[in-house]
Amino acid sequence: MSRRRALVRYLAARLGLVPVMLWLIASLVFLLLRVAPGDPVDAVLGTRAPEAARAALRSQLGLDQPLLSQYGSFLLDLLRGDLGTSLNSQEPVSRIIGQSLPASLELGLTALLLAALLGLTVGFSGIARPEGRLDLAGRLYGIGTYALPPFWAAMVVQLIFAVWLGWLPVGGRLPPTLLPPEGTGFFLVDSLRNGLATGHWQQLGGTIRHLVLPAGTLALLLSGIFTNALRLNLRRALASDYVEAARSRGLGEARVVLRHALPNALLPVLTITGITVASLIGGALLIEVTYSWPGIAARLQEAIAQRDYPLVQGIVVVVAALVVLVTVTVDLLVALLDPRIRF
Amino acid sequence: MPRLLRLTPRRTTFLTAAATLLLTGCQAGSAPSGGGAATVPGPADSPSDALVVATSARVGSVDPVRASTFGATQLLSAVGDPLYQLEPDGDLVPALASELPRVSSDGLTVTIPLRRDVLFHDGTPFDAAAMVFSLERFLAIGTLSYLLDDRIESVRARSSHELELRLRRPTTVLPQLLSTINLTPVSPTAYREYGDRALADRFVGTGPYRLSFFSDQQQRLEPFERYWGDRPRNGGIVLVSLGNSTALYGAMRSGEVDVLLSTGLHEDHQQALVQRADRGELREGQGPALEIGYLTLHTNQPPFNDPGLRQALAHSLDRERITDRVSQGLRAPLRDLVPPAVSSGARGIWPAYDPGRARSLFRQAGYCDGKVLELPLTFRSNIPSDRLMVLTWQAQLARDLGDCIVLQPNGMESTTVYRQLGEGAFPAVMLDWRGAVRDPEAYLFPLLSCSKAEGGRCLKGESALSGSFWTAPGLQEDLLRSEGLAGAQRLQLLDGIERRTAAAAPYLPLWLVTPRAWARRQLAAPRFDGNGRLLLQELHRLP
Predict the structure, then answer these.
(1) For B445, what's the count of Cα atoms within 13 Å in the CB-facing half-sphere?
(2) Run of H or E including B219
(3) Chosen CATH of B291-513 out of 3.50.50.60, 3.10.105.10, 3.30.457.10, 3.10.450.30
(4) B418 near A47, Cβ under 8 Å?
(5) Record: contact A205-B29, CB cut-off 8 A
(6) How far, in Å, are A6, A230, B174, B180, B270 from residue B156 at the CA level?
(7) In the 8-state DSSP scheme, what is residue B508?
(8) Which of B141, B238, B243 is nearest residue A177 as measured by Cβ atoms?
(9) d(CA A309, CA A40)
(10) Whether the predicted pLDDT of B12 surpasses 60
């Protein structure tokens, strides 16, 4: 079988599993929410509402239906692409996700970019003298930033740069006096577009200032992963036969490292990037909460606390779908870039 | 040096431009050092005299039929008007109503004359038909409609500016209920398609401000030019929600916000702000203390089915020390269920701290002499003051009565606590309560009302839902009788009910929570209305 056909088959198999995985995840979330203690009616009415009012709201929200019937409706709606309506705000879940997902993606992607730049630079810097001071510092940096508790780190950074020094804002995506730019929901893109159109750059400046602390903190926490991955893989690559062969051909050390060892060392880093992106989509909760970043993770936490079943289900399904998509894409990229991979 | 890193003239130009853009943006968005909060000129900003007010409360929906959180009602109170307004001292004054309600001799028909000079934000006139539309909509789909629907039978417009309510039974607290901001009228024209469903992100009412932008984290209010009453004393309000106490405190400290509300602020941050206000760096305002913190004891099962043991626990609670340690004096100790601002002042009905008396009562119940009562005390783990209270009381009991009782703190997420409360899952649990209206009834009925009882045990009703399961012969009858009374006679009856409750001690009141707000020094001190909401329209810069 040709490599191309094998790749197509591999891709089809992976994508074919996506609906099954999503169904399993959706069913699990549906079930867990109903098994967990707590009642959405309490979240809406408070605990002291009379039983009649509670029953009326339960009926209005469809929570008085048998569990199987609720499950059936949920799956049917999901198949139609209808994620339902939030129990709390009565807004369509898809609209809520549409508002908060771009915020999370903007934060996550900016952080990832910064983390990769920072982490790879630190990881690469010690390679000239293995076990030297720079290498040791890089190792300590990798372990230290990876081990930092996110909530603590975010609070400390916020306290120093926003509260004490007052250099940067404490939270949110824009200064309160500015209206959010209309468009994609990615404020960097939208405000840049507005700036180019109007010549006013306040929105872009505000967006960048508000992004610095959350993205910087997240980047700091993630950069250690890149540092460690690059250090280990680069050292392994530099000790391999093909690098030795390149040196024996008389190539300069810089060329050996940059042209021969580095590309091979970066392949595992690509896989790690994929996994990190996947975890970032829904996993930057502590950063979002600390910096009042209106992202999907903070929204999910709120929805869980309020037992807002449709919103939790909708967010989990969308995030799961994105995670699967990113993972498959990264697998595909690695397979395309690395001829050693067999399908 | 690798070619990629070399600085060519074109690259230098690009980098310079990028750095200039970044710095320009940063400077444009930064707060002026001595002036107002982050006000910046530009096409998309709010007026320069708009004030930024921060709180931790996110607003899911601005529709009066859905608004039940503090943040939502605070917002509604600025964009809507109630029929009656509660003054800070608790006096009721007409707002959209032109005079106090007229009640028929049988107490079942209430006539409310309405103002004739009121316009909705969409320019349509406010009249009795609009009020009927809004009230019927609230009764049909309002999440808090239970406050009214067992009292109001029907609503009709008696004339163009006269509203008539037909009641199911005489209701003394009706005027107070009509001051609820959830009953604020909405424009029938704007809400025509929303008669049977909520409109979460827009509002067309009659209040001093128009809602010009809404998201759950930020709302913008612009003064309504054709408002019937006094115009707001500022150029607009931007309400922002910040996710945690440190962010709120930091925003105030760095000058990012003009006014900060105490909701969601940790005690130590509040204390720091109080100290800054004492030094003259900020201006502080306080509202009426309408929220109480209390303990519920499950009286339907051992050990607290023993009234003597409940009394022992009541005497063992050193409220002064606990409130001092937890809130550094910001919360006032409370020995009544009905807050002093709602009744005739602090009465101290519940037993005072008396470790000697507590020890004697524990002994009578069979504890102390070699037998220690191990008491699981449940608290809401997501509320920091609850945790601090439980830990402080644990230490205080270990010091005073360590040979009689040991507290076993049991933290649990609040949603789980609320769900299991009515199932009798907790021997003792810490909770808080704020009455829907400023009346003793709003504190006694939700804790004591019982629709089905067996002796001293409540099987069904508010008392069971509250987790105490306590009632007493004749108590429910007295509660119902109070609804038909008025004036001193009614208050006397309610006071008697509260005293009977104190003697049985199914609940132990602990503290009072006072709402506070801090404004920057350049602003006047914030003021609250009688329902504990900040008067946004009165915020203004000092000359």
Answers:
(1) 19
(2) strand B218-223
(3) 3.10.105.10
(4) yes
(5) yes
(6) 75, 75, 16, 19, 47
(7) E
(8) B238
(9) 8
(10) no
- Which residue out of B5, B75, B146 would a mutagenesis test of the A interface target, given it has the greatest number of A Cβ atoms within 10 Å? B146
Q: What angle do CA B204, B92, B495 make, to 5 degrees?
A: 125
Is residue B5 over pLDDT 80?
no
Higher confidence at residue A140 or residue B28?
A140
Distance CA B479, CA B490 (A): 10
Domain B9-263+517-538 CATH class label: alpha beta
* Domain residue limits, chain A: 18-82, 100-337
- What amino acid occupies position A94? S
Strand partners, B528: B534
CATH code 3.40.50.2300 for A100-337: no
Report which of B255, B257, B251 is spatially closest to residue B237, judged by C-alpha positions.
B257
Report whether A292 contacts A169 (CB < 8 A): no
The structure's pTM equals: 0.81
Do the interacting molecules here have an ipTM over 0.90? no
Tokens of B365: 């119940």
A170 vs B contacts (CB less than 8 Å): 242, 246-247, 250-251, 254, 256
Residue B216: its chain A contacts at CB < 8 A?
89, 294
- Give the contacts of B465 (CB within 8 A, at least 6 positions apart): A47, A48, A51, B421, B422
The residue type found at B24 is T
Query: How does pLDDT run across A47-82, given as a tens digit for each residue?
Result: 666 667 777 778 877 788 888 888 888 899 888 888
Å between B363 CA and nearest CA of chain A: 36
Measured CA to CA, the distance from residue B362 to residue B310 in angstroms comes to: 9
Q: Which residues pair with B295 in a beta bridge?
A: B430, B508
Strands annotated E in A41-149: none
A276/A108 Cα distance (integer angstroms): 9
Judge contact between B421 and B466, C-beta under 8 A: yes
**pLDDT level of residue B39 (50, 70, 90 thresholds):** very low
Which residue is closest to B445 within chain A, CA to CA? A48
Q: Give the residue from B82, B75, B81, B119 showing the smallest Cα distance to B214.
A: B75
pLDDT digits (tens, 9 = 90+) for B308-320: 999 999 999 999 9
Cα separation, A183 vs A193, whole angstroms:
9
Q: b/e string for A74-112 if b means 16 or more Cβ within 10 A?
A: beebbeeebbbbbbbbbbbbeebbebbbbbbbbbbbbbb
Q: What is the 3-state secondary structure (H, E, C) of B21-65?
A: HHHHHHHHHCCCCCCCCCCCCCCCECCCCCEEEEECCCCCCCCCC
Domain ranges of chain B: 9-263+517-538, 291-513
DSSP A291: T
Of B281, B260, B254, give the one whose Cα is nearest residue B29.
B254
Separation between Cα atoms, residue B293 and residue B55, nearest integer Å: 21
Q: Is the pLDDT of residue A187 over 90?
A: yes
At B414, the amino acid letter reads S
3-state secondary structure of A155: helix
Closest CA to A292 of A150, A148, A187, A174: A174
The answer to whether the CB atoms of B242 and A170 lie below 8 A apart is yes
- Four-residue CA torsion sign, B236, B242, B245, B248: negative
